Amino acid sequence: MRSLHVALVLLSVAGPLAGQRLPTAYHRWEPTLGASPPPAPALSGPARDYRWEGAGVGAVMLGLIGAMMGDGMCEGDHCFAPTVAFGLVGALVGGLTGGLVGSLIPKGPPAPQ
Q1: Number of domains forming the structure of the chain
Q2: Residue 49, strand partner residues
Q3: What does the pLDDT read at residue 103?
């Protein structure tokens, strides 16, 4: 009980803190004209890895596997919607995975023309 009284006395005697005072002036940012960085150079040439090939192969393979799973899990007569849904999910997962794996495999130097 004594510590509560001491805490109340200390709180009533305390003065305003720095966070309770208004600052003298706010900092203001103003843009300078012509100081923008130059634009990034455009990428030249095709990607030198197998990301698109991997995405295509992965989408086709897992899309077909997903469609077969959707058709196999369907027990009724109306199996079109689950087949398409499972196929699209499989194609999405396969395309993303194949693209990521394909981007890790570099292509050789381009053939001379």
Answers
A1: 1
A2: 106
A3: 92
pLDDT of residue 44: 63
pLDDT of residue 65: 96
Residue 69 placed within a domain: yes
Residue numbers of the domain that contains 65: 51-103
What whole-number distance in Å separates Cα of residue 104 and Cα of residue 49?
7
Identify the pLDDT of residue 35. 62
What does the H/E/C string look like for the chain? CHHHHHHHHHHHHCCCCHHHCCCCCCCCCCCCCCCCCCCCCCCCCCCCECHHHHHHHHHHHHHHHHHHHHHHHCCCCCCHHHHHHHHHHHHHHHHHHHHHHHHCCECCCCCCC
With the C-alpha atoms ordered 67, 72, 78, 82, is the resulting torsion angle positive or negative?
A: negative
